[in-house]
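Hi W.,

Here's what went into the run:
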Amino acid sequence: MNKQEINDEDLVRKFLNPDKIERTPEGFTSKTLTRIRIETQSEKADKGFFARNRVPVISAVITAGLIIAAILLPAGETGSIGSAIWEYFRDIELTLPGLSLPTWAIYAMIGVFVMGFFDVVLSGIFHKENTPKP
Amino acid sequence: MDPKSDRYYISQVLGGRIDGFAYLVEMHKDKAFNLAFRICGNREEAEEIAQDAFLKAYRSLKDFKMKSSFATWLYRIVYNTAISLVRTRKNRVLSVEEFPADAVDFLGLSSSEEEAADDYRNSLINFALQKISEAERGLITLYYYDDLDTEEIAKITGISRSNIKVRLFRARQKMGEIIRQVEMKNDFYNE
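Here's what came out:
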């Protein structure tokens, strides 16, 4: 039979031996694991201060912001947007049947809502950052 | 859970035991290395590619949803890493004249005639692989060496099944042509 008549499939199968695969050099597994250990450790060390401590840093910034805002809010003054919002929250009176809540409880509830909002936003941000790219 | 399954060792690694990854490397290293080698045609580069692929797999293991087998997922990483590397370098075009040997030349290097013939065939296949595109090399390796069907190859390469069939057909045509040319050349010099 003429060589040209042998179809390509048969020819490739005749020359290609599936059992003759190229094998890794000696010590491949240990070298790979050593590299994984070194690179993952150096990645942790290479991260900057903010990357390593982002949760407490952001929490501290938000807390400081809230404290500063509380100090700077004009007490009893009107005329600005900030004071208008302040007035709005200050005038809220929450009453339940047979139960009258003290003023501090209203502030506490607003605080809980605000912190809850920040918690959801930050959780979204950090969850996104922790998910590696495909 | 079967203590010998990939899933068992994956859960160990995710639980913080890096040693569990040694099993996964040990189990899949040769096929990963072979795929990398067939695509890039160089042992040093293939070792680098295989190591990179295992490192990437380790880093992304928590994202592995186990929808496919670990091997399929790993081969996808190896395939993409190897293709990217090969595309960044300039390949020298080899001519048929640069494949100098026929089976007789391998006799001095091998212990038997049969082994020499086997080495000759393997060298010729490697030579033919270097004459087709890197993506085609990957397809030929997955189809013939790893004996995977087109559906599995599609998962690894991201190429559609119909396109895989077309590319395999073309790759076989090119390789067949190269093998015939080398055989004819050797016949000519041996006459």
